[in-house]
Amino acid sequence: MSVTSGTSGTKSAWRNWAGNVTARPVREVSPASVAELAEAVRRAAEDGLRVKAVGSGHSFTATAATDGLLVRPELLTGIRDIDREAGTVTVEAGTPLKRLNVALAREGLSLTNMGDIMTQTVAGATSTGTHGTGRDSASIAAQITALELVTADGSVLTCSEKENPDVFAAARIGLGALGIVTAITFAVEPVFLLTAREEPMAFDRVTDEFDGHVAENEHFEFYWFPHTGNCNTKRNNRSAGPSAPTSPVAGWIEDEFLSNGLFQVICSLGRAVPATIPAVAEVSSRALSARTYTDIPYKVFTSPRRVRFMEMEYAVPREAAIGALREVKAMVERSDLRISFPVEVRTAPADDIVLSTAAGRDTAYIAVHMYRGTPYQAYFTAVERIMTAHGGRPHWGKVHTRDAEYFADVYPRFGEFIALRDRLDPERRFGNDYLRRVLGA
Asked: Which of 145, 217, 229, 279 has its CA at 20 to 30 Å from residue 71's CA atom?
């Protein structure tokens, strides 16, 4: 086992992707096997240390922060098994989603749905409820059929709908509170083609037609540009082919030059001179053009995100989404806020995962962002006030101020999760300050 130990004077700092969370663990481990990880957990318990595993650090909350033992799972990667008859793949928890997607495509397989980035590890993405957009499928965790985790006493527990079903119901989105996930089995299917249609659309039109767009498309999402009446929509639907991907040049212009390079410049200008943001937003949002392309799923669902930002995202009942979004728009228009990042709207069907943001209800997600280094608190506070008035549930890995009392009200099975945590981790070996706030003692 690769071990990096620190003392009080030489602790190594860990920082998340956005740079807003820092932790100084006493020591770090990079176990090469589940057995080595289990032993590290047992040793930490003997030394009175709390334990947290980190992935790519893409969460904006302190979910993975620890002052004890930090577990880096970069050696727990790769596919363990592909069962074509069952339609499943079992993958080590530290595997980045990008590596999994590429490996599955090479095997002629694919996840049914995914989020719009793939830098996270599979365990980190699922444990915090990462999702895409979909009429029938969205959350990556909802595609899990089994998982394996190391619990607080160092034992290895496997769970599925048939084996330890109570753990399975909760641990698919477990926030790292129930144990350290070491392997995940996903449902997969033969690789297929998606046709993406991206099209500018006026805010009033897309909001008036929102229910129709969701019903008519397998995957629908849109982005509204604050200070404008303009949106960009994206519809992804299965296609019989043929494949018609974007050309390398066109793809580079859209996804690298415009969406990352030029956008970085615009955001930097807006941070330096906020008064320019409304005018620039109006021009840039009107410069968007429609495009259509057909490719395999991960090349359609995902795109590079190189501009760093802070993000808050709330899940609201789908029927409340447009009303809530219109309230956000009205709030921005009557305020002196200057917002350079578009607001993203996606959907998900109801699922049965205890702490899923879509648990028990058809859901819409409204995500707001601010360029890193720009004050975001006033904007996020105003948006959060709107979302909580609609019974919103914040994304577990994104900025929010809610606590256990709030979650007990908006999650009908919250007590079930807490009882399971009490059983699996009574001493809070996997606890930290963030979990104390959102789950209670």
From this structure: 145
In tens, the pLDDT along 347-392 reads 999 999 999 999 999 999 999 999 988 999 999 999 999 999 999 9
User: How many CA atoms lie within 13 Å of 343's alpha carbon, on the beta-carbon side?
Assistant: 28
pLDDT tens-digit profile of 164-184? 999 999 999 999 999 999 999
> HSE-up of 158 (CA within 13 Å, CB side)?
9
Instruction: Identify which has the larger pLDDT, 432 or 285.
Output: 432
CB atoms within 10 A of CB 27: 19
Residue 10 has pLDDT above 80, yes or no: no
Residue 437: helix, strand or coil by DSSP?
A: helix
Q: Round to whole Å and give the CA distance between 193 and 383.
A: 37
Cβ-proximal residues to 245 (8 Å cutoff; 6+ apart), any chain: 251, 293, 294, 295, 299
Lowest average pLDDT, out of 52-56, 103-107, 280-284, 376-380, goes to 280-284
Residue 288 phi, psi (nearest 5): -70, 145
Write a three-state SS string for 202-218: EHHHHHHCHHHHHHHCC
Structure tokens at 397: 């890995």
Sign of CA dihedral 123, 128, 132, 133: positive
Minimum mean pLDDT among 62-76, 104-118, 271-285, 287-301: which range?
Answer: 271-285
Average pLDDT (108-114) is 97
Q: What is the DSSP letter of 121?
A: B
Angle, CA 420 vertex, CA 415 and CA 424 arms, to 5°: 150
Q: Which residues contact 172 (CB under 8 A, 6 or more apart)?
A: 126, 141, 142, 144, 147, 353, 356
- And the tokens for 36? 């080595």
Cβ atoms 358, 143 nearer than 8 A: no
Residue 176: name the closest of 305, 78, 13, 41 by CA. 41
Q: Does pLDDT of 7 surpass 60?
A: no
Among candidate residues 331, 359, 336, 340, the one with its CA nearest the CA of residue 270: 340
Burial class, 219, CB count within 10 angstroms (exposed 0-12 / middle 13-18 / buried 19+)? buried
Compute the residue count for the chain: 441
What residue ranges in 333-390 does DSSP mark as E strands? 343-348, 363-371
Q: Is 427 exposed, middle or buried (0-12, 13-18, 19+ CB in 10 A)?
A: exposed
359, 353 contact by CB (below 8 A)? yes
Which string of DSSP letters, residue by residue, matches 13-43?
A: PEE-TTS--EE--SEEEE-SSHHHHHHHHHH
